[in-house]
Amino acid sequence: MCKLQRIMHQFQTTAAAFLFAIPVIALGANRAGGQEWTRFRGPNGSGIGRGIDLPQRWTDRDFNWRIKLPGTGHSSPVVWGRRLFITSGDEETAKRLVICIDTTTGKPLWQREFTSQRHGKHELNSFASSTPAVDGRQLYVTWGTPNEYVVLALTHDGDEVWRTDLGPFKCGHGFGASPVVLENLVIVPNDQDGTSSLVALDCGTGGTRWKAPRQGKASYITPCVFQPEHGRGELIFSNWDHGITSFDPKTGEKNWELDIFDKGHTETAIGSPIVAGDLVIAVCGWLGVRKEVVAVRLPRNGRDDQAREMYRIDRSAPLCTTPLVNASLLFLWSDEGIVTCADVQTGEVFWRERVGGTFYGSPVCAANRLYAVSADGDMVVLAASKKFELLASHPLGEGTHSTPAISGGRMFVRTFSQLFSLGGSRSE
Questions:
Q1: Is 169 in the same domain as 259?
Q2: d(CA 156, CA 171)
Q3: Within this chain, do residues 107 and 226 fall inside the same structural domain, yes or no?
Q4: Residue 30 domain-assigned?
Q5: Range of the domain at 297
Q6: Which of 59, 80, 306, 337 has a beta carbon 3.0–4.6 Å from 357's, enabling a disulfide?
């Protein structure tokens, strides 16, 4: 190979590697036009939206658009650029629907349908409860039945790239865990009443890169990532049997594990873990028995240090909803409509107030305000501060179990069969 050929070959290799890395870099950064919302609860599952201009109070005339969705579902929207992706399901046939919508106009860009098996599930579940994940190249959709656990990759234009079947999913309450994208891996939780695991699939091919065996019953959490100031990132996963576990996201090797949930009775993990500095905050419990939120200090020196429990809150703790941290404050929005504000470092409770309603969707935060929508369809707005302040409550006209998404200066709210856009400039 001549010198010029070597130079051209090196340039092409470097350029290809750079282009391949662009979607990965974009996942952890804000683009000039706004914030991508790539997974359940947005950036690392934090639920925090930036650059959003919402009216504190509004009427139906203030919505940018409001559209009817086919079927029904509990999944949340994900957004990349001007494309919003959402799933829905047909309750009669269990057909799975994937819909792409223009975020500015609300116009549907495409819809894809996939046949599936109708099966038993909890009355509060749906055939579209898993939130997709998206990166700069593809959309990743999951669903589970007693016969198959499907992970499906589609282009942003809706073309199927690959499909992987992880085997049967066994749980009488049905399916609901959501995937995340980390570097070139799709991380897929697979805690179930059958053979459980945490699986990493190659984004390009759908092939299994690693598989970490798990034990215990079904859970519904979405994992998050802890990135220490120095050192490699850690994939954080929680369930009742193991407690909180840290995995090496590249290999699936377990870094550490802390068994911290009450073993005096059966529990399950539905609300997802979140990271706040060097704390991970995780939820577990069982209706009518006990619900607990536990904060764990992560090891600071790798394997030479130990994770340790810092505090727990079990009064008015959530089961289905995920905690939220804004600045130094931890907010717990219980399923029964009781909101707790505490110091994120110590667990000291500043206030605990009932806002009413039942909540299965988790809160999000923008402009130092908390937003959560009740199962009856009332969006409750609170000040995200050490002083309790109910700012507003707005009926949407239909119930929801979904969590809002925030991207491009707008909030997108999904009810059982509708999708709303609020905020931002209508002239965009």
A1: no
A2: 31
A3: no
A4: no
A5: 219-322
A6: 337
Question: What pLDDT digit, counting tens, does each position of 185-218 carry?
Answer: 999 999 999 999 999 999 999 999 999 999 888 8
Q: One-letter amino acid identity for 254?
A: K
The answer to whether the CB of 106 falls within 8 A of the CB of 152 is: no
CATH number of the domain to which 229 belongs: 2.40.10.480
Element holding 143 (H helix, E strand): strand 138-144
- pTM value surpassing 0.85: yes
Q: Strand 364-366 to strand 48-49: parallel, antiparallel, or no bridges (unpaired)? A: parallel
Among 57-61, 70-74, 301-305, the range of highest mean pLDDT: 70-74
In angstroms, rounded to a whole number, what is the distance separating the alpha carbons of residues 19 and 3?
Answer: 24
340 DSSP 8-state letter = E
**Taking a C-beta distance cutoff of 8 angstroms, is the pair 45, 222 a contact?**
yes
| Chain centroid to CA 236 | 13
Q: Is residue 312 part of a domain?
A: yes
The continuous run of DSSP H or E covering 84 comes out as: strand 83-89
Question: Do residues 45 and 39 touch, judged by C-beta distance below 8 A?
Answer: yes
Q: Are 69 and 99 in contact (CB under 8 A)?
A: yes
Per-residue DSSP letters for 259-304?
Answer: --S--SS--B--SPPEEETTEEEEEEEETTTEEEEEEEEPPSSGGG
* Residue 428 in domain: no
CA distance 396 to 80: 25
Instruction: Give the per-residue pLDDT at 34.
Output: 55
**What's the CA angle centered on 183, arms 145 and 13, to 5 degrees?**
125
> Is 419 part of a structural domain of the chain?
no
* Boundary of a domain, candidates 322, 346, 373: 322
Helices and strands, number each (H, E), in the chain: 1, 33
Helix (H, G, I), strand (E, B) or coil at 354: strand
Same domain, yes or no, for 187 and 302?
no
* One domain for residues 178 and 290: no
Which long-range contacts (C-beta less than 8 Å, at least 24 apart) are formed by 203-208? 203/135, 203/137, 203/138, 203/140, 203/153, 205/162, 206/151, 206/153, 206/161, 206/162, 206/163, 206/164, 207/164, 208/164
Question: Quick check: 380 pLDDT over 50?
Answer: yes
407 and 35 Cβ atoms separated by less than 8 Å:
yes
